[in-house]
Design a protein that fits this description.
It contains 7 helices and 7 strands; from the N terminus they run αβαβαβαβαβαβαβ. It has a 7-stranded mixed β-sheet, with helices on both faces. The chain is α/β, with parallel strands linked by helices and 218 residues long. It has one domain: Rossmann fold, CATH 3.40.50.150.
Length: 218
């Protein structure tokens, strides 16, 4: 479902400028380029309303979280949520950016990101649209490029077809997930899981959540 256009969106974004990063002249090389402190840099591509990014930033104060989303009105909602929950974060460790995933290598330098998250990405169910899926091999190659050696790509979805497609793409690339579950919420991996609003809603309706983690080796 397409989000309604936000009233006074530009003005609201301007008020949140302290949380939003403009596209840099040179790709981001480390957390220090965006945050006041060093440490791990974690990136969520397609942050939606910001529930995951906000939850992770509060739970892990020593990790810097960067939430990336191409729709400006969605960033408005996510950043406003982050601002309303700022007292829940011990450190100033959360930033947002408006950008398209296809340009990710223009935003981040090679081996600059410790962990990259894909949460409930658009499944683009029509076969002719498979190249638009964020787990299509061209996107995955770009993501692997910006992730550090030994870093992780983590993906979760309620859409089993998209999950199977992702496994197939990884296999074609010669990549084997280090972690794999077709029922995250009933697995040992759920203890550290931060649930998005979308995730809670679909789980309550009986949908199993699929999750995988790939450790990048260079």
């Amino acid at each position: 479902m397409r989000m309604r256009k936000k009233k006074h969106g530009e003005e609201r974004l301007a008020m949140l400028s302290h949380l939003i990063i403009e596209k840099p002249g040179e790709p981001i090389r480390c957390a220090r380029d965006c945050f006041s402190s060093d440490g791990e840099l974690h990136l969520e591509v397609g942050c939606g309303k910001g529930g995951f990014a906000c939850g992770m930033a509060a739970k892990h104060p020593n990790i810097n979280f960067f939430a990336f989303e191409k729709i400006a009105d969605v960033i408005v909602a996510a950043a406003e949520r982050a601002e309303s929950e700022r007292d829940m974060r011990k450190n100033d460790n959360l930033r947002f950016a408006i950008g398209d995933a296809k340009d990710i290598c223009e935003w981040f330098a090679p081996s600059s990101v410790d962990t990259l998250y894909l949460n409930f990405s658009d499944p683009w169910p029509k076969k002719k649209h498979y190249k638009r899926r964020l787990t299509y091999r061209a996107f995955l190659s770009s993501f692997f490029e910006i992730i550090k050696d030994g870093g992780y790509l983590r993906f979760k979805t309620d859409n089993r077809d998209l999950f199977e497609f992702t496994l197939s793409e990884l296999s074609e690339m010669g990549v084997v997930p280090e972690i794999l579950t077709f029922d995250l919420h009933n697995s040992i991996y759920d203890e550290e899981n931060v649930r998005t609003e979308y995730e809670r809603n679909f789980s309550e309706k009986g949908f199993a959540i699929n999750m995988l983690a790939v450790r990048v080796k260079k």
